[in-house]
């Protein structure tokens, strides 16, 4: 059963996006509140959550233990190579879906392009890159893997089974042995087999833990990143598309009922960028900097004046005690 179901993802994302009501002519339209987008793919958030859940479930199927079990359960080289090909094909499919943009109107795993425009690269792309690096290592290991690895694991396991069986037999004999010398010899044999068994366990663990890919961590990080992307947009953060629509998520299409309405892409194409007013927070910052500069200048001038006055006072000659006589 998938760890992250479509319902779970929908509840998480829709709860965060409840404030993002797109206008009729915004390209995100009512995507975040139960409707469809206007990007051409007619995406719906609930449907996209199902797409994500399937993608994440497929990714989590690449868990190291599941891969080891799938390969070591094979009984021939042919069966092993078939299972390896299935795993490599799955890896290629996952890699193609782990992209910020997977098409003209689609993002990761085929969900709406809105996710790519809403700061997905800022919050999620780094996690996707980490996941792809891990997948690349796993893919390289699998590509070079041979059935000899399975045979070696089975040989070690066979030796473990033999040692355990021998220990159980000597234990049974020691419990029934009346001769103290023979009983002591059996106990010594059991102790020696115990040391050998520990060694074989370590060998088996080293071979069976060859793959160290942990997809659950990557999936969790990506989901948290997507939640941050939605929260960032709710607070007015901008995505990678450069659009700053209040409705969030990309540009707008032209309203056919309003002759004075123009496409958002045309609005963004300003031939005279120097005439744009700076953002309010930037103007405030510039004003603060200007005030600070004025204070510094005033302080410097005051210090210079004070220094000159003190210097002038010190340079004046002191009156002589004989001045009253002249």
Characterization of the model:
The protein starts with 5 loop residues before the first helix and ends in an 11-residue tail after the last helix. The protein contains ten helices and no strands. Among the domains are: 6-146 and 211-234, no CATH class; 150-208. The longest helix has 36 residues, at 280-315. Helix 5 (114-144) runs antiparallel to helix 8. The protein is mainly α. The chain has helices at residues 6-16, 45-60, 64-72, 77-97, 114-144, 147-176, 180-208, 215-234, 264-268, 280-315. It is elongated.
Write the layout of secondary structure elements.
Blueprint: H1 6-16, H2 45-60, H3 64-72, H4 77-97, H5 114-144, H6 147-176, H7 180-208, H8 215-234, H9 264-268, H10 280-315
Task: Summarize the entry for a quick read.
This protein has 326 residues and is mainly α. Among the domains are: 6-146 and 211-234, no CATH class; 150-208. The chain contains ten helices and no strands.
Radius of gyration equals 37 Å
Strand % is under 5%
Determine the mean pLDDT: 76
Low-confidence stretches: 236-286, 318-326
Please tally the β strands and state the result.
0
C-alpha end-to-end distance: 114 Å
Helix count? 10
Helix residue percentage: 55-70%
Oligomer: single chain
User: Major β-sheet, in short?
Assistant: none
Output the structural class.
mainly alpha
* Shape, per Cα inertia axes: elongated
SSE string, helices as H and strands as E: HHHHHHHHHH
């Amino acid at each position: 059963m998938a760890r992250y179901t479509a319902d779970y993802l929908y509840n998480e994302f829709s709860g965060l996006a409840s404030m993002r009501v797109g206008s009729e002519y915004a390209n995100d339209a009512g995507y975040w509140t139960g409707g469809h987008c206007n990007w051409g793919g007619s995406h719906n958030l609930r449907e996209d959550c199902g797409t994500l859940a399937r993608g994440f479930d497929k990714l989590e199927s690449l868990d190291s233990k599941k891969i080891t079990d799938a390969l070591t359960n094979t009984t021939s080289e042919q069966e092993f190579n078939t299972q390896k090909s299935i795993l490599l094909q799955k890896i290629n499919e996952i890699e193609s879906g782990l992209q910020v943009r997977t098409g003209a109107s689609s993002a990761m795993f085929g969900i709406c392009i809105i996710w790519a425009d809403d700061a997905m690269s800022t919050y999620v792309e780094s996690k996707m890159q980490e996941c792809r690096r891990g997948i690349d290592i796993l893919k390289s290991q699998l590509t070079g893997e041979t059935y000899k690895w399975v045979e070696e694991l089975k040989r070690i396991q066979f030796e473990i089974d033999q040692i355990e069986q021998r220990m159980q037999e000597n234990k049974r004999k020691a419990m029934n042995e009346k001769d103290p010398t023979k009983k002591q010899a059996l106990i010594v044999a059991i102790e020696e087999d115990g040391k050998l068994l520990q060694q074989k366990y370590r060998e088996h663990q080293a071979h069976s833990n060859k793959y160290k890919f942990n997809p659950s961590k990557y999936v969790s990080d990506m989901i948290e990143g997507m939640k941050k992307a939605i929260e960032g947009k709710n607070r007015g953060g901008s995505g990678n598309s450069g659009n700053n629509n209040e409705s969030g998520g990309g540009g707008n299409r032209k309203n056919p009922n309003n002759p004075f309405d123009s496409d958002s892409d045309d609005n963004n194409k300003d031939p005279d960028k120097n005439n744009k007013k700076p953002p309010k927070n930037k103007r405030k910052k510039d004003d603060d900097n200007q005030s600070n500069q004025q204070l510094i200048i005033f302080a410097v001038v005051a210090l210079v004046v004070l220094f000159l006055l003190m210097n002038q006072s010190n340079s004046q000659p002191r009156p002589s005690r004989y001045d009253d006589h002249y």
